[in-house]
């Protein structure tokens, strides 16, 4: 058959000769859309909230640099500055609003501090948050406890911080021994939580603490001494909010032995990363990472060498 305009019905369309208005040129948006993503975990509604992103120098990761460059190239990433998501999570249990980690406020990088805007997009007033759980006290997780003008950001929330984590960052002895370049991390951790301590709103937790029915602390130290994951469990559904088990998917899934210079105890961080990868792969657990590409939800599988990350498919409906 000879293909003609008529074959496609264009001739017929032409006969209708609609008077189409000239299309206006649409202005460019020039900004990214909101960083908000929802999923259901049993009876819980979880909203992943982006705080933005930051460029992480590849040289912060330990391990063979040539092999590292190949892994980054294979993932179409810059071999020098790696774009890195910063994600936090809001859990609506049906009874309580629980925020796990708070973002960076304005203390770290201009590409960060977007959690309040994304929380607003999600339709949540910070005053409605009942509980804040902190995986650890690094700035990208805890500095958002305060607004940009250093006021309490979540006025009705109780703040939960790991016993070991709080002890480490508030220790005068450890602070005195810390290298100068690390001291700002201590200052930010202390300043961020102090107004809540003064208001009597901080509670310490340990491994296995149940914050609310189905929301449990699971210790995974090394990145920081009190670094803790939060396990959500509702009916048959589970989600492991694993915090900073991984800082770069392209490097650390295939080679979990790579530490990042921010790790307080790199060997312990590596041991816990391997332990958590093994659990997640064996149990086919859905995991959420603070620094996996937004929305940072996926599964871990064993690969021929190391592990692989399998992001979840976009869920258009809950
Ligand atoms: Zn982090």
Key words describing this protein structure:
7-stranded mixed β-sheet; alpha/beta; binds zinc ion
Short structural description:
With 318 residues, the protein is an alpha/beta fold. Helices cover 26% and strands 25% of the residues. Bound molecules: zinc ion.
What does this structure look like?
26% of the residues lie in helices and 25% in strands. A hairpin with a 2-residue loop joins strand 10 and strand 11 (237-241). It is α/β, with parallel strands linked by helices. The protein is globular and about 80 Å long. The chain has a seven-stranded mixed beta sheet with strand order 1-2-3-4-5-6-7. It has helices at residues 10-16, 65-74, 115-121, 139-142, 163-170, 172-177, 180-198, 249-252, 266-283, and strands spanning 36-41, 44-57, 81-92, 97-100, 131-133, 158-162, 202-205, 210-212, 215-219, 228-234, 237-241, 287-288, 297-302, 307-311.
């Amino acid at each position: 058959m000879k293909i003609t305009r008529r074959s496609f019905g264009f001739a017929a369309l032409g006969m209708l000769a609609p008077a189409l208005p000239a299309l206006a040129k649409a202005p460019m948006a020039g900004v990214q859309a909101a960083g908000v993503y929802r999923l259901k975990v049993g009876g819980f509604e979880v909203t992943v909230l982006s705080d933005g992103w930051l460029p992480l120098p590849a040289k912060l990761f330990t391990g063979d640099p040539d092999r590292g460059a190949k892994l980054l190239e294979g993932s179409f990433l810059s071999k020098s500055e790696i774009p890195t998501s910063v994600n936090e999570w809001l859990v609506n249990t049906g009874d309580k609003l629980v925020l796990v980690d708070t973002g960076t406020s304005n203390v770290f990088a201009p590409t960060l501090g977007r959690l309040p805007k994304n929380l607003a997009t999600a339709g949540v007033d910070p005053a409605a948050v009942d509980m804040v759980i902190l995986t650890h006290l690094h700035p990208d997780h805890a500095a958002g406890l305060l607004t940009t003008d250093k006021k309490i950001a979540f006025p009705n929330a109780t703040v939960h911080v790991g016993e070991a984590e709080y002890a480490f960052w508030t220790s005068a002895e450890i602070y005195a021994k810390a290298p100068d370049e690390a001291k700002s991390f201590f200052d930010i951790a202390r300043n961020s939580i102090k107004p809540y301590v003064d208001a009597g709103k901080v509670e310490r937790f340990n491994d296995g603490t149940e914050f609310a029915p189905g929301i449990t602390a699971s210790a995974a130290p090394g990145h920081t001494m009190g670094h803790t994951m939060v396990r959500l469990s509702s009916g048959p559904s589970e989600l492991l909010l694993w915090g900073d088990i991984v800082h770069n998917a392209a490097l650390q899934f295939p080679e979990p032995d790579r530490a990042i210079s921010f790790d307080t105890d790199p060997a312990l961080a590596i041991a816990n990363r391997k332990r958590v990868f093994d659990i997640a792969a064996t149990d086919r657990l859905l995991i959420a990472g603070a620094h996996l590409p937004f929305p940072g939800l996926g599964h871990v599988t064993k690969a021929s060498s190391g592990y692989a990350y399998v992001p979840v498919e976009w869920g258009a409906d809950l």
